[in-house]
Specification:
With 265 residues, this protein is an alpha/beta fold. It has two domains: 3-83; 86-249, Translation initiation factor eif-2b, domain 2 (Rossmann fold). It is 49% helix and 15% strand. The strands form two sheets. The protein has a seven-stranded mixed sheet, with helices on both faces. A hairpin with a 2-residue loop joins strand 9 (236-239) and strand 10. Helix 1 packs parallel to helix 3 and helix 2 runs parallel beside helix 4. The radius of gyration is 18 Å and the shape is elongated. The mean pLDDT is 94.
Length: 265
């Protein structure tokens, strides 16, 4: 299949994890760079138009566009996404801080949370999501938690009853902002109002330079795909390098500025 055809499939993909989406895009863009290097920038912009809140896709695109050898850059980006240690750090911190059976609240997407629970410890999970994706998310968490209860986005107060911590995942982040799904944003705000600690997971490829993070926020807000919170609204953040102050974790961008990605196509 020609890289352009694969990129069209990636653009239409729905329900894929951010890491999987960006990994597939990395290899496909690397092939496109060998066949039609002049087409790579336009292809990156088209992918971001279809997935405006996918932080790892901005991160991957910026790295490939700046690379002397896009094929090597694609392999490196995919490797970092596949070997993301964020979930392991979350698992260790949960095990060190709470006992099995503790009530943990989370929201979609909860891929890193599910992986953390699979690796270490069992918790009772309250999961908040849009109604259309609630059943699928509950099913995914059921194999790694003592019990899972699903809640709609407007039921965050109920989801937090008895919870000792809320753990949410950033779609993308930058020095001044954190991009969350609407469900995760609602849970974070309600947790803060209820004095429940909020942990932020910033997985590989989610921390972006300021300009790219702002562009992701503008595009996502315009599409109604995400909401923005400030880094200081979280108690702690965890990324591939472990736990730290949220302002530190969201500033650990490992890609170039990607200014060409936010220009006019």
């Amino acid at each position: 299949m020609h890289p352009i055809e694969r990129l069209r499939w990636i653009a239409r993909a729905d329900g894929e994890s951010a890491a999987s989406l960006a990994s597939e895009a990395a290899f496909t863009l690397g092939e496109l760079a060998e066949a039609e290097p002049a087409a790579v920038l336009t292809a990156c912009r088209r992918l971001l138009e279809r997935h405006p809140s996918c932080g790892p896709l901005y991160w991957t695109s910026a790295r490939l566009l700046a690379a002397a050898d896009p094929s090597v850059a694609a392999q490196q980006a995919a490797s970092e996404l596949w070997n993301d240690e964020t979930a392991e750090h979350v698992a260790r911190e949960l095990a060190a801080t709470f006992t099995p059976g503790t009530v943990l609240a989370t929201a979609e997407p909860a891929e890193l949370v599910a992986e953390a629970l699979r690796r270490r410890g069992r918790f009772s999970v309250r999961y908040v999501a849009e109604f259309s994706s609630l059943r699928l998310g509950v099913r995914a968490l059921a194999s790694v938690a003592d019990d899972v209860t699903g809640f709609d986005r407007d039921e965050c107060e109920e989801a937090l009853e008895g919870a000792e911590v809320a753990v949410v995942e950033a779609l993308a982040a930058g020095p001044a902002l954190v991009l969350l799904s609407p469900a995760a944003a609602a849970l974070s705000r309600e947790a803060a109002a209820s004095d429940v600690p909020v942990w932020l997971c910033v997985g590989a490829g989610r921390a972006l330079p300021a300009g790219l993070a702002a562009a992701a926020a503008r595009a996502s807000l315009g599409a109604g795909a995400a909401e923005v919170l400030a880094p200081d609204e979280f108690n702690v953040a965890l990324g591939p390098d472990g736990p730290a102050d949220p302002a530190v974790v969201v500033s650990r961008a490992t890609c170039p500025p990607g200014t060409e990605l936010v220009g006019r196509s």
